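QA checklist item 7 of 12: single-chain prediction sanity check.
[x] sequence parsed
[x] length recorded as 220
[x] structure emitted
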Amino acid sequence: FPMAVCSQTSGLLNKELNILSLGDSNGTYPHSWPQQLRLALPNTQVFNISKSGRTIGFVNLGDSTLNSLSVIDENLEKAAAATKDKPYDFIVIELGTNDGKAVFAERQKEVPQNLEKLIRKIKESRYSSITGAKIIIISPPPYGTKAENTEKYAGGYERVKAMSKAFKKLARRNGCLFVDGFRTPGLDINSMTADGLHLDAVASRKLIEPVVEKMIKYQD
């Protein structure tokens, strides 16, 4: 982490935070961004419900369990059980990459609407350990050239760029913190991914640096 961030994290390092992370494949690897949060904040417990192929609100690959809206109640139940009544401090959501696929190109107006529905479901959960958490929305990183050059992801760069703007407004409207994953400082999507989509360890760390900064400011 940059020196400025390292010096500021000293207060957080001593806190036993409880974080729920919700993402797609970029949240599932051994070097993923939820793992980077654990490394940055070693006293923090991270309950990670990321899943490869997950969308905000579309049925991806014919699998309804990849639709976050369809399974959020079930996932929140698991999250509440895992925390053993200790409330979550933050819920970090990093979704949208799969909603930007070419197959969903004509449904992009639904993406921010679905995210807003997802946030409302979280805030209106019947679990008190969930409802008091501060939600942090990370907009999806850009698509790299290798992904853009495939039929599956063609045009995705502009779609996730649009999500960044829409998610920022949505976050403000719903009282959430926002991190612009599309413009992450120091993240080079073409050199830090093998396929233009899946972040390596360095990129995953870069992605959560501004997340930690938001946590610091919120906790101060």
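[x] summary fact logged: The longest helix spans residues 201-219.
[ ] second reviewer sign-off
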